[in-house]
Amino acid sequence: MGLPSGIFNQNYAQDMAIFRTRAQWIMLLAFLAFLFTGPLYFSDRILTIMTTIGITIISVLGLSILTGYCNQISIGHAGFMAVGAYTSGMLTAHLGWSFWAALPCAALMAGMVGVLFGLPSLKIKGFYLIMATIAAHFIIIWFILQFHNITGGGDGLAVPRPEIFGFVIKSKGSYFYLVMIIACLATFVAKNIVRTRAGRAFIAIKDNELAAEVMGINLWAYKLLAFFIGCVFAGVAGSLLVHYVAFACVDQFPFMNSVWYLGMLIVGGMGSITGAIFGAVSLKLLDELVTIVGPILSAVVAPQAAASLSLIMRGLVLIIFLIFEPRGLAHRWEMVKAYYRLWPFSH
Amino acid sequence: MTFFLQLVISGFALGMVYALIAIGFVIILKCSKAFNIAQGHFVMIGGYLGFTFLVTFHLPVWASLLAAIGAAIIMGLLIERLTLRPLVGQPILAVIMMTIALATVFEGLATLIWGGEYKAYHGVLPTITLKIGELSIPSEMVIGLIVSVVAVAILMLLFRYTKSGLAMRATAEDEQVVQSAGIKVTTVYALSWVIACVVGVIGGIILGGVSGVMVGMSQVGLKAFAVVLLGGINSLGGAIVAGIILGVLENVAAGYLDPLLPAGGGLANVFPFIVIIIVLIFKPYGLFGLAEIERI
Question: Which site in A134, A178, A296, B92 is 20 to 30 Å from A103, CA atoms measured?
Answer without folding.
Answer: A134
